[in-house]
Amino acid sequence: MESPILSVENFSAFFGENQILRDISINTSPNKVTALMGPSGCGKTTLIRCINRMHELIPGARVSGKIYLKKQDIYMMEPIVLRRKIGMVFQKPNPFPMMSIYDNVIAGYKLNGIKLKKDESDSIVERSLRNAALWNEVKDSLHRKGTFLSGGQQQRLCIARALAMNPEILLLDEPTSALDPKSTAHIEELIVELKQNVTMLLVTHNIAQAARVSDFTAFIYLGELIEFGPTEKMFTVPKDKRTEEYLTGKFG
Amino acid sequence: MNTAENIAENIEDTNMHKIIPFPSPLRIHEDKTLRNNSPVGYRIFKDKLFKCLVIILSILSFLPLLLVLFHITKNGISVINWGFLTELPLPIGEKGGGVFNSIIGSLILIILSSIISIPLGISAGIYLAEKNKGRIANIINLCIVVLQGTPSIVIGIITYIWVVAPLGGFSALSGGIALSIMMLPVIIKSTEETLKLIPYHLKEASLALGVPYYKTILKVILPTGLSGILTGILLSVARITGETAPLLFTAFGNQFLNYNILKPIDSLPYRIFYYAMSPYPEWHTFAWGASFILVMIVLSFNLIARGISAKWKVQF
After folding, report:
1. Chain A contact set for B199 (CB, 8 A)
2. Which of A79, A251, B238, B246 is least enclosed, having the fewest CB within 10 Å?
3. Model confidence, pTM
C-alpha cells in the first residue's frame, strides 16, 4: 500500500467533560476519496475539524492521540502553516462577500500577504476555477462579487479557493447539505473528477453520496469508528452488524 | 332478551356516535356581539378611529421637527451669503462679517475628536464583539452605559481638570478630547453590534485558509462590517457637532481665525450661544444663520450615514 497522506492514530477528542471521539484510526490513500459517514452528532464533523485544528477555536476542546500529515505530527505544527496545507470546504457556502470572484479564489494568498505577479495570479485563478468546474460560468464576470452566484456556484467557488492553495488534502464538510439536488449532482461529479489531483476526505450523512463518490468509507457511530474499508466491500458485505443496520436504514 | 331494551340501547349507541355540533368561532363571535350589544358597524368604527389616532399622533411627533426647520430657515436664510460663510466676525456696529472661524473651528474639533476616538472605539468594539462573555467585557459594557449617560457638561469639567489646567489654557486639543469622550460610546456600540451580525462562517473560511487571527479581523471582518462602522462614526460625529456644553470649558471660543490646536478655537454651537446671549438684534440674526448652517451640517452627516448603510450593505 502507498504511504497515506493523512493518518489518524488512536485519536480521541473532548469538549470539556464530554468525549466526542473515541480511539479513532483512519488512513487516507493518495488520490482517493475517503468518506466519513454516520448519523448526525456522531462526531464526524469534529474529526474533520480536528484535522485542520479548527476545533481549537472552541474553548474547552482537547485531544489525545496523533494525526500525521505526510508523516508530520500536525499537533507539532503551527496551525497557520497546517491550515495552508489542508483545504477545507464548509457546509454552507462561504465566499467572502466584499471580494470579487477573482479575489475570492486567491484569497488564501491575498489575506496571508503572499505577493503574486499579475500573470501568476491570473493562472492560479484560471486553473483553480477550471478544476472546480466553474471557469466557463464565471470567466466573463471574474470581477463581480462572489455573492451574486447561486448556492451551488458559490460552493464550487469555495472549492476553487481551497484548491488555489495546492492543498495536500481537501476536507469537505457535508459540502452539499445546503444545496439543491442539481447542484449536489454537480459537486459530486466534481469530486470524482478532482480525485486525479487531490486527496479528499468527505464528511456526509448521506449514505448514497458516500456510495457514489468515495473509494473508502469509514462508519462512525457515537464517536466510535465501527468499520473502515473500501466502499464497495462495506456496502456489499458489511462486517459489523451496526453498519449493516445503518446502511439498510434501521437507525440513524 | 328483551327486544325493547335492545332497541333502546341501539338508540343510545347511535346518539353517542352522532356528531355533537361544535360551537364554531363564528358563533362565539355572534354571541359576544349580542352580549355587548354592539353591532358590527360600531367595531369597524373603533378600528378606523384607532387607525386615525395613530396617523394623527405620528404626524404630531413629526411636526416639531418641521417647525424647527421652518423657523431656522425663515430666520437664518436671510443672512446666509458668501460673505457669511467666508468672513470673520466684525465688531458690533459694522456691517457684514461672518462665521468662517466657527466653521473652521468646528471642522478642526471634529477631526481632532475623530482621530482620538475612532481607533479607540473600533478597537474596543472589536474586543467586545470577539469576547462578549467575560469579566472585562462586562466591565467595559457597564462603563459604556455610564459614559453614554454622563451629562456633557460634566465631561467638559472633567476635561478642564485633566487637560486644560495642566496645559495652562483653553485649547482646541482639549475640546477635541472632550468631544472624543462623547463619541466613544456610540462608536464602540455600533462597531460591536455590526461585527456581531457578521456570520461566524466567514471567520472560519478565513482561518481555514491559514490566515492568522489578526489578519482575519483586519482584512475580512472589518471590511465586511465597514458600512456599519462608518455609519456609527458619522452618527457620532453628527451628535458631537452640535455639542456646546463641553466646549465652554475647553475650546472656549475665539473670534479670530485659528489653526493652532493649542490655542482656543471657535465652534458653531459656541458662536450661536455667544450671539444669542448678546443684546444686539443683528447678532441675533447671525445666531439664526449659524444655526441654519449647523443644522444643515448635522443633517448632511445623517443623510450620508443613511446613504452609506444602504449602498455599501454587504450581502452574506
Report:
1. 94
2. A251
3. 0.81
